Amino acid sequence: MISMEMASFPFLTVLLLTNLVALLVIMFIPPERDKLIKKVSLFFAGITVVISLYLYVTYDTSKGGLQFVERYLWVKSLGIYYFVGADGINLPMLLLTSVVLFTGVLTMWELENRVKEFFAFMYLLVIGVYGVFMSFDLFFIFVWYDVALFPMYPLIVIWGSTRKEYGGMKLTLYLLAGSALILPAILYLWTKSGLNTFDLLALHRAGFTKHVQIIAFVMLYLGFGILAGVWPFHTWSPVGHVAAPTAVSMIHAGVLMKLGAYGILRVGMFLCPQGLQYWAQLMALLATIGIVYGAFIGLAQNDLKYVVGYSSVSHMGIVGLGLATMSVGGINGAVFQMFSHGVMTALFFSSIGYIYDKTHTKMINELGGLSKIMPVASAFFIIAALCGVGVPCLSSFWAEILVFIAAVKTYPVRGILAICGIVITSLFMLRVVMKTFYGPKNEKFAHIPDVSLFLASPRIILAGILLLFGLFPRLILDVIQSAVIPFVGGF
Amino acid sequence: MKTLLFLPEIYYTVMALILFLLSVQKVANRRRTFLVAFGLASLGVFVTLFAVKMHGYLFYNAYKVDLFSQVFKFMLALGLFFVVAVCDNLGDISEREHAEFYLFLVTCTIGMMMLVSAVELLTFYIALELSSYSLYILVPLRRGVGFDKEAGVKYILIGATASAFLLFGMSLLFGVAHTTYLPELFKLFPSLITQPAGAVGLMLVLAGLFFKQAVFPFHFWAPDVYQGASNQVTTYIATASKVAAIAIVIRFVGLASQNNELLVKVLMVLSVASMTFGNLVAIIQKDIKRLLAYSSIAHAGYVLIGILTMDTTGFASAMFYALAYLIMNFSCFMVIVKVSPDGRNVWVKDLAGLHKRSPLLAMTLMLGLFGLAGIPPTVGFTGKFLVFLAAMQKGYLALVIIGMINATISLYYYLIIIKAAYLLEPDTDEIPPLKVGFGLKMLNYGLIAAIVLLGIAPSQLFDIAKAAASVLY
């Protein structure tokens, strides 16, 4: 039984509404006032950072369970509740979303084309993301999930680059095909429970039969898994990353892909533990293939964004592997990896965005020696790459080591294969770093100035977070663990 | 007091008479005709709203006024109001015929209002023909284009075939049951449906009705008629007449007792075929009206999912879907009408640059299309959600998955339209911005609000629909 503590003040609703208000305010600003729109966006993004940080800090890990809960009946005849709350699993995700949003707005500071619409769509997307992370009602989880997906299409086709129409369409159709499996699964569970409620906790207590769990879990796993970049359904992801504009890549790889993993954890594993046991072998297998495959394909890429895209497939594989272990350590690691990968890819795309803005290329063989031209801007990419490799003192190290320890215990062969995959990841990351930032410099770009402090600020924040949680992993692990231990106890 | 039950129909008959008087005047005044029609149509919405709570029987029990019929009458009045609201520039209908145009719209509405209340086969048939004949005149009223006449002839011929099916089916039903009253048929039906004549009779009646609703394989008039009729008439056919078709299909399917395996199977096949066919063919369309015609075939399939569950939740979800469809589809058609002031057909590429010409219209279009694709938080999603929920309660998991996959397919062609409106730049440099007057602005805001608000807060409306569905028999 998970404890629930009602909110003294509706923080979570306020967090959601902040974004809605931001959206409305932006819509009423005349389109030609670019600067004002950006300032307003940054202001509201700042508020969300403050709120989510406050929630993160004041969450009482000794009590655990759900805190800041708000629960109201929404549709009586169907048992739909407006039910939001925070626990150790979604708090890091909420914080991640705010950070990525804030730094994303900063990264897009130099946007000139259709500024108003861009930030409006971006806020719409973020409302969906927050909604999924804080909701504990299946109906709302699904609604917010789709709200988070569909703005991707205009964001990519209007502001994107490299094959944007193809990439945008592929991404949207893939992801919504995923939700085509999620909705039937949700309705299936609702019907089978016979409780006439979409309340996640009530459904958890309903105790579905094994047969029901097996069917529902596989639908949920595949549906959410598409968004989490599970191999072989990952093909939308690198294409989409490459096509999307910088801030959208950041939000997309940093936060949206986590929605998928979060959905598997929060809905699939929470409601169908026996279904998980049945499918865990397959999950671990697909995750391992993803880790190794992503690393190998990454080796052959020439476009910086493709490199990061495939490394995301590999890193999200680690999340999947962690979840499949069904152990405290593994899930701790998986959630931590979700957070740290989010920050890391945001940093990756933010740095690539800057390089691309200045050099108008993101092809590795056209760049070269960048660290001599813009040492500070290059440093951010290199930090992200080191984090991706799993160097100690950066947050991914802790996440990955937790997952691998758990994985080797549960699935020895797959665990070791996955570790080999990480070795290949380091190979391709270092290859990219070497070719892009060291070696002979390309004289064509010699005149480019280094990044200014203001424009570097988003990357400073992100790199700082990686370092902070790398040095003090307990800051986040304590929070995560307070939710994961009772979670695993429910299996 | 009993006459009051007939209030909406009387009101619209009076409206038709006023329009008739306008039509015989020597000098046509398009502005005045429009204002009169618009004023009366908006008042009509309130009249039907006022009549929502009425219930009782009229005309020797052939005519039943209940929550079900009154809710549908309200939707029909809303549909008429919507259509008249975008008639301020009837570009492709000669000025002399404007009053007739409104007149037949109104008679068609009266026919459909009687249709949703009729519980006796002959009354039902007469009401159906009243609405059909009005449409047969409206379709070829368009001037100039060429395929309008073809569409008109096709529509009449196919409509006549549908009527033939319907009449044959009704005669079979009468033959086995010796009554034309639906409530009595309903009582006798559990035994009748096992007889071949009874089953065939019901199937034939339904086939006739599926022509009206454009369910595959009775759909083939829809694309040609949508393309050939003037934009406003297509709007009317795509919104109000679809609502009426859903209402009568619910009435007749409700006749069959609950656990009728055969009928459920037939409906299931039709529903899947309709969704899949409509969505796949829509992908290759260039003319938006044709595209929306195929999408309407697909939507007929989604509604059938709700109807074939044959219980209150299912019928209520179909009713909710009907209203959702009315609002979303009208949003799309409104934009089409406005983009083409001279009444020509609109191709997908003609929408290029719409976001610059009128951001508001572009946004309404986007929301309408996302609604049709079933993306939350729009009313279209909630409609699909309720329909699928009803089907899931009956255990039709596969059907729900097929429905959802279809929704994903449909997203492809809706996204192409959205892309045209938001991304493409027009070929010619100078396309003037579209003028959006105060009234149109309000209409847009209203539609946007309705699409979103009904999407996130469907509670009251669904309860009403449930209450309405429970008084069916």
Structure notes:
The complex is a heterodimer of chains A (491) and B (473). Chain A is mainly alpha-helical. Chain A has one domain. Chain A has helices at 11-27, 34-58, 90-107, 115-134, 138-149, 152-159, 164-193, 200-206, 210-227, 236-243, 246-271, 273-299, 304-324, 328-359, 370-373, 375-389, 395-410, 412-437, 453-471, 474-489, and strands spanning 4-6, 66-75, 80-86. In chain A, strands 1-2-3 form a 3-stranded mixed sheet. In chain A, a hairpin with a 4-residue loop joins strand 2 (66-75) and strand 3. The mean pLDDT of chain A is 87. In chain B, helix 3 packs across helix 20 and helix 13 (288-307) packs antiparallel against helix 14. Chain B has a two-stranded antiparallel sheet with strand order 1-2. Chain B is globular and about 70 Å long. The longest helix of chain B is centred in the middle third of the chain and has 31 residues, at 147-177. Chain B has one domain (2-470). Chain B has 20 helices and 2 strands. The model of chain B has no long low-confidence stretch (mean pLDDT 85). Chain B is an all-alpha fold and 473 residues long. Chains A and B meet through helix 5, helix 6 and helix 7 of A and helix 17, helix 18 and helix 20 of B.
Instruction: Outline the biggest β-sheet of chain B.
Output: 2 strands, antiparallel
How many separate structural domains of chain B? Answer: 1
The topology string of helices and strands of chain A comes to: EHHEEHHHHHHHHHHHHHHHHHH
Structure summary, number of beta strands of chain B: 2
User: Tally the helices of chain A: what do you get?
Assistant: 20
Helix content of chain B: over 70%
- Unreliable spans of chain A are none
Mean pLDDT of chain B: 85
> Helix tally of chain B?
20
The proportion of residues in beta strands of chain B is: under 5%
**What would the principal axes of the Cα set say about the shape of chain B?**
globular
Mean pLDDT of chain A: 87
How much helix is in the residues of chain A?
over 70%
Query: Looking across the biggest beta sheet of chain A, what order are the strands in?
Result: 1-2-3
Distance separating the two termini of chain B: 24 Å
Distance between the termini of chain A: 12 Å
Number of domains of chain A: 1
- How much of the sequence lies in strands of chain A comes to under 5%
Can you count the beta strands of chain A? 3
Order of helices and strands of chain B: HHEEHHHHHHHHHHHHHHHHHH
